[in-house]
Amino acid sequence: MAGHLKQAHLITAQERLRDQVAHALRAALISGELQPGLVYSAPALASDFGISATPVREAMLDLVREGLVEPVRNKGFRVTEVSGRDLDQYSELRALIEVPTVGAVTRSASREQLQALRPVAEEIVASAREHDLIGYLDADRRFHLSLLGLHGNERLVETVGDLRKRSRLYGLRALDAQGLLLPSAEEHLELLDRMLAGDAAQAETVMTRHLGHVRSLWAAEGS
Predict the structure, then answer these.
(1) Under CATH, domain 84-222 is a member of which superfamily?
(2) Which of 20, 21, 43, 190 could form a disulfide with 59 if both were Cys (CB 3.0 to 4.6 A apart)?
(3) Per-residue CA distances from 35 to 114, 172, 194 (Å)
(4) Per-residue buried b or exposed e for 143-177, using 16+ beta carbons within 10 Å of the residue's own CB
């Protein structure tokens, strides 16, 4: 029994390392340290991390499932390049899901549930002001997915989470440099205010504008 418990503890530790490496790789993708189109080997990345190649390879496979990288036979993993058409399609899907869901949540959620999201919305704005792109993305993810979670459909939240992973890396550094990230961040507070006022139609309008604004910023990045 003790041997089994020890093995279970080892597996848990390995899983945690895998998750930590995956988080670090996502951060490197966001910061531009890992660039679209380039191929990276698990052993080389493991050397940078100072660990064995196994958890790095496992973490990269997690990123493959998220659509962030793709395997290259006998070489490693290539960072996925996303076209403007891809981003348009991701944006369209998000709008089809998130806009009506925001309206529904405005009508059904309690004031306490919505107020609980304000600190996260303020965290998004603070991260934008501090040029903390990793913090921005983390807070933005928590806000949007927590808000959608109030609708009670777990599959809907998973779907939007997947769409966000596939598109989240694009444009942030340039937007921050141009001073355009903060206005996008502040739209979260505007959305929350509309929802707290019980105005479902206006909340849907703000969400439509927010998602369209994000896509237009991506377009500016690519120009």
Answers:
(1) GntR ligand-binding domain-like (1.20.120.530)
(2) 21
(3) 38, 14, 38
(4) bbeebbebbeeeebbeebeebbbbbbbbbbbbbbe
Per the confidence metrics, is the pTM higher than 0.85?
Answer: no
C-alpha 211 chain-centroid distance = 14
- Please state, as a whole number, how many other Cβ atoms lie within 10 Å of the Cβ of residue 87: 20
pLDDT-based confidence at 7, cuts 50/70/90?
very low
- Mind listing the pLDDT tens digit for each residue in 117-128? 999 999 999 999
CA neighbours closer than 13 Å in the CB half-sphere of residue 210: 24
Whether CATH 2.60.120.10 fits 2-79: no
Predicted pLDDT of residue 143? 96
